[in-house]
Every structure is written in C-alpha cells, then in structure tokens.
Amino acid sequence: MVSDNVIHELEAIVGQENLLTTPEERWCYAYDATDLAQMPDAVVFPGSAAEICQIVKLANQYGFPVTPRGAGTGRSGGSVPIQGGVVLVLTRLNRILEISKEDLVAVVEPGVILGRLKAAVEAQGLYYPPDPSSADFCTIGGNVAECAGGAVAVQYGVTRDYVLGLTVVLPTGELIEAGTRTMKGVVGYDLTRLFLGSEGTLGVITRIILKLVSKPAARQTLAAAFADLTAAASAVSQILTSGLAPTALEFMDRATLECVRELLPFPLPAAAAALLLIAVDGQPHDVEERAGRMAQFCGHAGADPVIRARSLPEAEQLWQARKVISPALKKVRPLKVSEDVVVPIGAIPRLISALQEISRRRGLPIHSYGHAGDGNIHVNVLYDPKVAREREAVAATVQEILAVVRKLRGTLSGEHGIGLTKAPYLGMELSPAAIALQRRLKQAFDPNNIMNPGKIFPATGSGLD
Ligand SMILES: Cc1cc2nc3c(=O)[nH]c(=O)nc-3n(C[C@H](O)[C@H](O)[C@H](O)COP(=O)(O)OP(=O)(O)OC[C@H]3O[C@@H](n4cnc5c(N)ncnc54)[C@H](O)[C@@H]3O)c2cc1C
Predict the structure, then answer these.
(1) Atom of ligand 1 nearest to the CA of 149
(2) How many Å is the Cα radius of gyration of the chain?
C-alpha cells in the first residue's frame, strides 16, 4: 500500500531518523493495550504540525491510511493500523507551551505524557484533574482523542470538561483551530467537542488548550471492606445521595481484590467480597468532616474494617493498588476482553449480580472494578486462548453483557471508546439514522477515508468502514 516512492517522500518530510521501515521496528507500533495487532507499512514521528499537513496530503494523493498514535495505551484498538498504511506517532510533539496562573489555562502539544503535565501544573499550585490509571504513560493527545476519564471524574468530570480549544490537521491536510483560549465561547458549531472522543478518525490534534483549576488544599482517602456486595452498593448509593460529594468512589469485586490483596497497606478479612476506595478533596477541616461521615455510612452499611489513610504514602499505596488492577488480572488468565460500560448508578447492584450469574453459567472468570461513583464499571472477561472452550465462549459472553447493560439503560463505553473492539456492537446503542449521520460526518471530514479507517463504524463494505 505504501510504495517506495511514498517512503522516499515521507523521508524527505520527517528525515530518515524519524521514519521506521524494518519489520522489527514497525511491529512495535502494530498494537495497543488490547490484544489486537496489525503491522503498519511505515511509522513516522513528525516534529511539527506543518510536517503532519504534508504527510496527510501525501496520504490523500496516494490513498494510504494514516493512523494517529500517542502512547498506544488505548483499550479499544484505536491506534492499531488495521488497514496498514502509516502510523503517525505524536510523541515528538511533547512541549508544554504555557501554564498561565493568571488565566487558569495550559497550552500543550499532544505528545506530552499526562503525568508530566499534571506534575508541572501542580508545581504552580494549580490542578488538571482528569486522572486515568494510565496517567504515567498515556499522552494528553490520546486523552483528548478518547475523552479519557478516570477515578476523580465523579467530582471533576472527564477530559471533555477541560478542553477549551484545539489545533487540528484535518484529514484533507488543512490546519484549523477550534474553540477558544477563554472559559466561554459559542462561535459557530462546537467543533472542539466533535473532535473530543473522535478516536483519531476526524483529524490529528497538534495543540491543546486546557482549562485548569486550583489545586485542592487537602485530600483524604478511605478504604472500606464489605463481606457482601449488596452492602457495598448500598453504601455507594448513600454516599452519592448524601450531598457529601466524593471526589472518587472506586469499587473492586472479590475476584479483583484477590489479584491486588498483597499490595494493600493493611490486611483484608478473608471474607471481603468488595472494597470501596474513596477520596475526598477540599479544605482540611471540611475534608476531615466529610470523610468521617462517609466512613460512618460505610460502617452502617456493614463495612469492616473502614480504614482512613494516615499518611500520603499510605494513600498513594491504596491508589497504586487500584491502578495496577488491569495488569494484575494476567495472574488469572493470559488474555481478557475489557469492557468499560456505564449504567445508571442505581443499577450497579443489578449489573454486578447479572455479571456473576453470566460468569457462572458460561464458565468464564469475569472481574469487575472501577468507577462506582459514576456507574462506569470495568468488566473484564478473562480467558486462556489455548483452552478452546474458553476462547469460543468469549464473544457470546461479551455480547450478553452488553445486552444486559443496554437493558439497564446503560451505555457501551464510558471512556475507552469504540475503536475496533466495540464497532460490531455500535447498533446496540445507536439507531441506523444516528449511525448514518455519523458516517456522513466522517465523510465530510475525510472524503478519501484516509484518517484511521476501519474504526468506530461496523464494517459494511460501503467504502466508509
Ligand atoms: C493500565 C491502563 C489503565 C487505563 N486506565 C484508564 C482510565 O482510568 N481511564 C481512561 O479513560 N482510560 C484508561 N486507559 C486507556 C488509555 O490509557 C486512554 O484511552 C488514553 O487516553 C490513551 O492515550 P494514548 O496516548 O495511549 O493513546 P493511543 O492509545 O495511542 O491512541 C488512542 C486513540 O487516540 C488517537 N490519537 C492519539 N493521539 C492522537 C492525536 N494527537 N490526534 C488525533 N488522534 C489521536 C489514536 O488514533 C487512537 O484512536 C487505561 C489504559 C491502560 C493500559
């Protein structure tokens, strides 16, 4: 698909040192955090928006696909170059261009690692709240393209709530600016929001203007272990309806707990069936009182023990245990399908019971954990590809889980996006008319379908899949 001629032209744009063509090198950019992989024909590391414009124009001229890529931590196959072509890695665009205390704004390039941005902002007494568990290695560009969430979304919202403006190379090669550097702005259609969560299918983001907030003065972390899942769900509901405004309210089921038990800073009762991890931000005296009341709610709901982190390192140890759940699940089975469904918060107990029943009936381990505070539960169907019975049961199990979610009036994805993994299920949530409109939008942006083709929309052979 990418001829020698194209390779020479790419080399002329980015320089030989920023172009990979050997199979060994290209293979490193074939996959993301799913188990999917597809070898690209070439990998380029552009150093500027102008170079990206040239590469995209070349793609239109020669008809090869371009797949934008940040750190490749995506969980829906978004940066897997499923139709080959060129993987466009944004990691060289990694400057923090501005942090303005006066305007509460940061301007950054897409390849900045989120953890680095958060630290730089906090060093100035400010706060950029979105905090996906991958913060130490994902890029802010990938966050915008997926509209990443994370634990503190309960209080602060998701990436969408902090993006004021974007600079984007369109799939036709023009550079445009969308949005503003101000806190408000309603000039024309809200293209910024359209690019947010567009999974690299509508353009390449080259610059991002972010809203910042003040750094919270204090944070308290609590952990509450429950012998009964329903009791944990009841504590979640009481906390959320109490007006105490938790910052994070995370949940782990029994099977998940077993994978991270030894990483917790305190021993857990053998009977623990669920753990809630709670964070509370605010002024020190206020945080103290709210955390105390939340601990009481947990105690009344049957939690034992309820532990308040006594120090920052202890709190960090608790959150670290939460952050490593995903890789820790490999202890149970080598592969997993990770869904990140969202249900109305009142429906969480029904979802969890249904998952337990499906797991028993289908004979596959299903581990659930995640953001109970906003109903966004990470449901992991674990399997061993070498065991035929397990391998063959996965697809039907996932489909059944998604059907349960829709029945509970939930949504298929809260933060990981549709990409490749969920494309076949799009019709479970969107009507044919809504899908057709979205396809027309894609066509208007990308008439030659060169920008990350094969993502989001189920394959139809229509030329736009
Ligand atoms: C251990 C682990 C924990 C995670 N925890 C969370 C979590 O708590 N919350 C959460 O929301 N996600 C989480 N994720 C998923 C993932 O980290 C996020 O989706 C993240 O935003 C992806 O960023 P990335 O830089 O790795 O992007 P990539 O995986 O490289 O790309 C993701 C998508 O964005 C597109 N893209 C990337 N950069 C650009 C750009 N500059 N312009 C246009 N399109 C672009 C790609 O084409 C692709 O479609 C987790 C992943 C892992 C592995």
Answers:
(1) 11
(2) 23
